[in-house]
Design brief:
Elements: E1 3-4, H1 8-15, H2 26-42, H3 44-55, H4 66-75, H5 78-95, E2 103-105, E3 111-119, E4 122-126, H6 135-148, E5 152-157, H7 166-175, E6 179-182, H8 185-194, E7 204-206, H9 211-220, E8 225-226, E9 234-239, H10 245-256, E10 263-268, H11 271-285, H12 291-301, E11 303-306, H13 310-320, E12 324-328, E13 344-347, H14 354-358, E14 384-392, H15 394-410, H16 414-421
Parallel strand pairs: 1-11, 4-5, 4-7, 5-6, 7-8, 9-10, 9-12, 10-11, 12-13
Antiparallel strand pairs: 2-3, 3-14
């Protein structure tokens, strides 16, 4: 992994966040637009054609039967089911604390104002297929939606020649997913956004996917809500000279193995640690099953930045705004106020990033590519909408009528003013 040195300004220039991976690529945008148009026009038939073309699977019935889901669950080991149940307990207990109740305000005589929170009616969860199965993502997305009160959670996942991974089906069952459909790619996003004969339209689409899925989510946004445009995984680690280089390297590789475009980053005030971590990366990569993917990530996307002090390390990470941020220093919680931009923070040398991926409870669907500057992790609030309400008595309206008509006429909206005055004529 390349090691960067220099003063803070020089390092800031070198590590400045790369372009968002889901940024427009004309050929992808055009291909996705064609897919969406085809699904809108031809519904299930378009989905069947794409399943044959892209997945090599002939799909006659998109909906996965309850018997198939139950069989998948039954085929999983007790060890896996116990792990999923632990994750469910911790994810639920964490996200239950996010629930808001709205409010009502009647402090002014004759005036009632308030806000009610209403759960979305239906949400769609995209679960990637291919080389890796992600039952943990199902738990992270579906459980907060359930807590929010969503009545219909629909899951889509690419069809597989040997059938959908049993762990995915088990997670869907435990998380309370209401229906599972075997369809993937941009065509699945289009189906969720507009509906087909078999797949219902939803109000919001969530979940990670490749560039075609991310581009499709971007193109249907406005017809439906989406969680975020997610890019490849990132991990940023701030570590001092007392950190264990083997552990730091292992944590960097925990994200590098996701994708050749994943971005592992270490910022340290110790040149000795930087050198030792590099040696460990070479050693550990040699035995990693996903060595090819992780090596490309480490060599092409990753870096180690050596700074003068830990304050500069935190300033640099705030510029990067990483998806995951580990703080491997003594008394890490004392640095929490220095963190302004990060998706999820892991405090201390024991809090390895996979802890958050699976069982700790905070969500692992996180902003990437620098969007932690303005996006937040997925949570209960993502599955509710706010509805405002107002009630005025005639007396209360009379007190404020003149101010309303003055503002309306200032904006050239005579009809607004007359609507208020009609109450007093």
């Amino acid at each position: 992994m390349k090691i960067l040195t220099g003063n803070f300004d020089q390092l800031a220039t070198q590590v400045n966040q790369r372009e968002e991976q889901a940024a427009s690529k004309p050929e992808v945008e055009a291909a996705v637009a064609d897919i969406i148009a085809n699904v809108r026009a031809n519904g299930d038939q378009a989905l069947k054609d794409y399943s044959q073309k892209f997945d090599g699977v002939q799909v006659d019935d998109f909906k996965v039967s309850q018997a198939t889901i139950d069989a998948g669950y039954a085929s999983c080991s007790k060890e896996l089911i116990d792990a999923l149940l632990l994750a469910k307990r911790n994810i639920t207990s964490y996200h239950e604390k996010e629930v808001s109740r709205g409010f009502i305000d009647s402090e002014q005589p004759g005036v009632i104002r308030g806000q009610k929170l209403t759960p979305l009616a239906a949400v769609g969860l995209y679960v990637p297929g291919g080389t890796a199965a992600y039952p943990s993502t199902i738990m992270m997305a579906a459980l907060p939606a359930k807590i929010a009160g969503v009545k219909n959670i629909v899951m889509v996942t690419p069809p597989q020649p040997a059938g959908i991974n049993p762990a995915v089906l088990a997670a869907a069952k435990l998380a309370g997913v209401d229906a599972v459909y075997q369809v993937g790619g941009a065509q699945a996003v289009a189906a969720l956004a507009f509906g087909t004969e078999s797949i219902p339209r939803v109000d919001k689409i969530m979940g990670p996917g490749n560039i075609f899925v991310a581009t499709a989510k971007k193109q249907v946004f406005g017809q439906v809500a989406i969680d975020m445009i997610a890019g490849p995984s990132e991990i940023g680690i701030i570590a001092d000279g007392q950190s264990n280089p083997a552990q730091v390297a292992a944590d960097l590789l925990s994200q590098a193995e996701h994708d050749k475009l994943a971005r592992p980053m270490l910022v340290t005030d110790s040149q000795a640690l930087a050198d030792a971590v590099n040696l460990e990366l070479t050693k550990q990569l040699a035995t990693l099953p996903r060595e090819e993917i992780a090596t490309a990530s480490v060599n092409d996307e990753g870096f180690i930045a050596v700074v003068e002090n830990l304050d500069d390390a935190f300033k640099l990470m705030n510029l990067i705004a990483p998806e995951h941020l580990e703080v491997q220093v003594d008394e890490p919680i004392s640095y929490l106020n220095q963190i302004q931009n990060a998706g999820s923070v892991f405090l201390g040398r024991t809090a390895s990033e996979p802890l958050g991926d699976y069982v700790a409870g905070p969500n692992h669907i996180l902003p990437t590519a620098g969007t932690a500057r303005f996006f937040s992790p997925l949570g209960v609030e993502d599955f509710v909408k706010r509805i405002q309400f107002i009630q005025y008595t005639p007396q209360a309206l009379g007190k404020e009528a003149k101010a309303i008509t003055t503002l309306a006429r200032t904006e050239g909206l005579e009809g607004h003013a007359r609507a208020i005055e009609s109450r007093f004529n």
